Amino acid sequence: MQLARFLNKLFKKDGFILIDGNLKKYIIGQPKNKTPIIIKLLDKKLHYKLLFHPDLYFGEAYCDEKIIIENGSLIDFLD
Predict the structure, then answer these.
(1) How far apart, in whole angstroms, are the C-alpha atoms of residue 15 and residue 31?
(2) What b-and-e string marks burial along 41-57, b requiring 16 or more CB atoms within 10 Å of the CB?
(3) For residue 26, with 0-12 CB atoms within 10 Å meaning exposed, 13-18 middle and 19 or more buried, which class applies?
(4) How far apart are CA 33 and CA 48, in angstroms?
(5) How far apart are CA 64 and CA 56, in angstroms?
(6) How much of the chain is in helix, strand and coil states, percent to nearest 5?
(7) For position 29, what pLDDT does the model report?
(8) Are residues 7 and 18 in contact, defined by beta-carbon separation less than 8 angstroms?
(9) Which residues pair with 16 in a beta bridge?
(10) Could you read off the pLDDT of 31-52 as tens digits, one per residue?
(11) How far apart are the first and last CA of the chain?
(12) pLDDT at 1 > cutoff 90
């Protein structure tokens, strides 16, 4: 998945687990916690939307509950 490859280039110090709309797991970066943050994308259309316009679609998808954050909160993820 192109989004996972792109995110792996961005996250170097810490990381999280990404579960895409096809329920496939990707380890992004190098998660340091024993229970890393898990981001679940519930809509397959988000794969490309987040790749090209993350500033627009991340917040929209989070409010529409198409993105679920586990083992943490939105603030933990943004930190």
Answers:
(1) 4
(2) beeeebbebbbeeeeeb
(3) middle
(4) 28
(5) 13
(6) 40, 25, 40
(7) 92
(8) yes
(9) 28
(10) 988 899 999 999 999 999 999 9
(11) 24
(12) no
